[in-house]
């Protein structure tokens, strides 16, 4: 079985088929997600192409995990992450567009995190976006507007917080 997996991976290096994308996703998913969340420069640089290659073969839970990882990358590498997500946003494919800057900057997947985790993420992300300056201003505005809505829902008692904890990861590469 291991030889078959190796053979498929080798063949997939020269292919862009959905079947190959699926094999690549299964084999390297955890490392891929971790590298994105850490803001690994090499992974962020190839993110638009990787998302185009896998967007039709990942599951909904994997899509959520990917959105979370990209949003976490904003903390460590805001400009590189925004450059990648802006390129993603130019795709005509709606399955690719779900990973664009508008989605990432709007405090995604908040329903699965605790209130304190969302507030911690928001503080770190807005600080990083402010330091990044003018190129990150639109993302910062989107994030602040999204957080204002979340806070209003919370004040009305309508916000349903999750149980996951956010633990910031250090930048790599």
Q: What is shown here, in short?
A:
The chain is mostly helical and 173 residues long. The protein is 70% helix and 0% strand.
Percentage of residues assigned to helices: 55-70%
Catalogue the unreliable spans: 1-25
What is the average per-residue confidence, as pLDDT, rounded to a whole number?
Answer: 84
Looking at the structure, what is the overall shape?
Answer: globular
Helix-strand pattern, N to C? HHHHHHHHH
What's the total number of strands? 0
Task: Please explain how this structure is put together.
The protein has one domain. The chain is mostly helical. Helix 3 runs parallel beside helix 5. The chain is globular. The N terminus is likely disordered. 70% of the residues lie in helices and 0% in strands. The chain has nine helices and no strands.
């Amino acid at each position: 079985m291991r030889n078959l997996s190796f053979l498929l991976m080798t063949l997939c290096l020269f292919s862009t088929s959905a079947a190959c994308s699926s094999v690549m996703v299964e084999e390297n998913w955890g490392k891929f997600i971790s590298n994105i969340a850490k803001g690994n420069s090499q992974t962020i640089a190839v993110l638009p192409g990787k998302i185009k290659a896998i967007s039709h073969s990942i599951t909904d839970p994997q899509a959520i995990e990917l959105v979370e990882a990209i949003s976490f990358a904003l903390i460590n590498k805001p400009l590189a992450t925004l450059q990648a997500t802006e390129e993603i946003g130019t795709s005509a494919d709606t399955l690719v567009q779900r990973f664009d800057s508008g989605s990432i900057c709007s405090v995604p997947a908040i329903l699965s995190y605790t209130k304190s985790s969302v507030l911690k993420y928001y503080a770190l992300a807005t600080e990083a976006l402010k330091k990044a300056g003018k190129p990150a201003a639109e993302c910062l505005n989107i994030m602040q507007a999204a957080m204002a809505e979340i806070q209003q829902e919370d004040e009305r008692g309508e916000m349903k917080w999750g149980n996951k904890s956010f633990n910031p990861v250090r930048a790599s590469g």
